[in-house]
Design goal:
This protein has a single domain (24-32, 43-466), classed as Alkaline Phosphatase, subunit A. The chain is globular and about 60 Å long. Helix 4 (95-104) runs parallel beside helix 12 (404-414). By secondary structure, the protein is an alpha/beta fold. The chain starts with 19 loop residues before the first helix and ends in an 8-residue tail after the last strand. It has helices at residues 20-27, 61-65, 72-77, 95-104, 110-113, 148-154, 212-215, 218-221, 242-246, 286-302, 305-310, 404-414; strands at residues 50-56, 83-85, 88-89, 118-119, 123-127, 133-137, 159-163, 189-190, 224-226, 255-259, 311-317, 385-389, 396-398, 402-403, 420-421, 425-427, 460-462, 475-476.
Length: 484
């Protein structure tokens, strides 16, 4: 394992069950011949042409992937169609700093750790070392700071951000202006931090409003749309929904970011509004509500022409929260640790640790914001993640540590950002940190792109390696079976 990375490894439990809707979807996959990188190339990205990143909220690995919650779809079913990343980490606490790390490589700052209750410009906003911005206050970064979305624009890669509920209450946020709550100049405006019964959108879970390089460009704001689309109004054309865009590959963006609302992303334990259950009296949130959302959206993506051709779905979390009833994050307490003393509601260590030599940056010494009563909080904790693609073996697991900066570096590599950035090779902020590993062959572990049948999670396990140049030696307990 890489020096400086946490070495705690969690095992998934249980044998995945297969949801009928997804089995039908996978059976529809067309087996095509795809160009693939050489088998011994540890660094080359596969020919993935379409990515959907779905970001959920505030759950540790134990909370999500060990059976403590009513979320069998994410815990059991989806890993059987792809890869479970057991050592995926957030970079800070609380929500907003993780979104900013993901798309711009910026380390946490005081105000974005506090989820920016006042929507206002960063001050002083001057450039710092390693591609960081000096930010003693404020959350909206100057136009000089580029994001992944600007890089995609520069490479003529189509993209959209789909945000559930954005614009339900136009007086709270402007759906035609990237979902911002108002102008950030001067003292700024109050930033809605919680949901309402009519509008469960919150700006802190939208990665775009925090960058002048995006919100000052109407063409970019036109790519930030409600998940369900918008009807035409005076001065504004209709905006397609995700479902409409998925109908044809030609209308599907090459990169899609999906932010569910504060209920569907598992943030709220009790939802203020609809949780997609169909029962107006059912307001259960958490991973139960996230499962309902994923059961609707993931099959919709998987049956699309773009996904069948060359797609990848990523389900990630922003940060880890302990899996205990005291935090409202679980229906049970964690009892799976062999050390009995760790099976108490005060065991929060897995939710504030870091990996991958994460640096704190110039604006705070504690990326983890001393969350959950901890004194030393170097990161956002272990969240886990699930990736699904024809270039990923179903049922596989990787124990290689990755974090949000790794994700950004990997997306930059995948979409050919090769110039600029901190390192001069297209990697922004701490995504350009020396030695940071992008996703490797432990992730892209089905390089020929054959469509494979679902398999129990754990059928192929990729242990962590000390160097990205080390050969992968997966522990394989069953064959990969092609879809026929």
């Amino acid at each position: 394992m890489k020096p400086g990375c946490a070495s705690v490894v969690r095992r998934s439990t249980g044998v995945p069950s297969f949801a009928t809707t997804i089995i039908v979807t996978l059976a529809m996959l067309v087996v095509t011949s795809c160009a693939a990188p050489a088998g011994n190339d540890q660094h080359k990205s596969p020919p993935i042409g379409h990515v959907w990143t779905i970001i959920l909220e505030n759950k540790s690995y134990e909370a999500t992937f060990t059976g403590l919650n009513q979320n069998d779809y994410l815990w059991k079913t989806l890993p059987s169609y792809g890869l479970l990343l057991r050592q995926y980490y957030g970079t800070g606490h609380f929500s907003l700093d993780n979104y900013i790390s993901l798309v711009a490589g910026q380390a946490p700052t005081p105000d974005n750790q506090n989820d920016c209750p006042q929507y206002k410009d960063v001050q002083p906003g001057s450039p710092g070392a390693d591609g960081q911005v000096n930010a003693s206050s404020g959350c909206v970064y100057p136009a000089s700071l580029p994001t992944l979305f600007n890089q995609l624009d520069g490479n003529k890669v189509s993209w959209k951000v789909y945000v559930q509920d954005m614009g339900n209450t136009p007086s709270r946020e402007d759906p035609y202006h990237c979902g911002i709550p108002g102008p950030p100049a001067g003292a700024g405006v109050p930033d809605p931090g919680s949901a309402t019964a009519q509008d469960q959108y919150v700006p802190k879970h939208n990665p775009v409003p925090w960058f002048h390089s995006l919100i000052d460009n109407p063409a970019d704001c036109a790519k930030v749309v409600p998940l369900g689309g918008l009807p035409a109004t005076a001065g504004h054309p209709a905006e397609n929904s995700l479902a409409q865009d998925l109908a044809r590959e030609a209308t599907t963006p090459q990169f899609s970011w999906i932010s569910p609302n504060n209920c569907s992303d598992a943030h709220d334990a009790t939802c203020k509004g609809d949780n997609l259950s169909g029962d107006p009296n059912n307001h259960q949130g958490g991973l139960y509500a996230a499962d309902l959302f994923l059961k609707q959206v993931v099959p919709e993506i998987m049956k699309s022409p773009a996904f069948q051709h060359d797609g990848m779905i990523q389900i990630i979390f922003d940060e880890a929260f302990p899996p205990y009833k005291m935090y409202g994050n679980s229906i049970a307490d964690f009892t799976g640790d062999t050390t009995a003393s760790l099976n108490t509601p005060t065991d929060t260590a897995q939710s504030i640790i870091a990996c991958c030599n994460e640096l704190p940056g110039p604006n705070t010494t504690q990326p983890g914001f001393q969350a959950f009563g901890q004194d030393t909080t170097p990161g956002g904790g272990i969240t886990g993640a699930v990736f699904i693609s024809r270039f990923i073996r179903p049922g596989s697991i990787t124990d290689q540590p990755y974090n949000h900066y790794s994700w950004l570096r990997s997306m930059e590599d995948l979409f050919q950002a090769k110039t600029g950035g901190t390192d001069g090779e297209g990697h922004l902020g701490y995504a350009g940190a020396e030695g940071l590993r992008p996703f490797g062959v432990d992730v892209y572990n089905n390089p020929d792109g054959r469509a494979l049948q679902p398999a129990p999670s754990g059928i192929a396990i990729y242990p962590a390696t000390a160097s990205s140049d080390d050969p992968e030696k997966p522990i394989v307990t069953g064959p990969a079976v092609p879809v026929r």
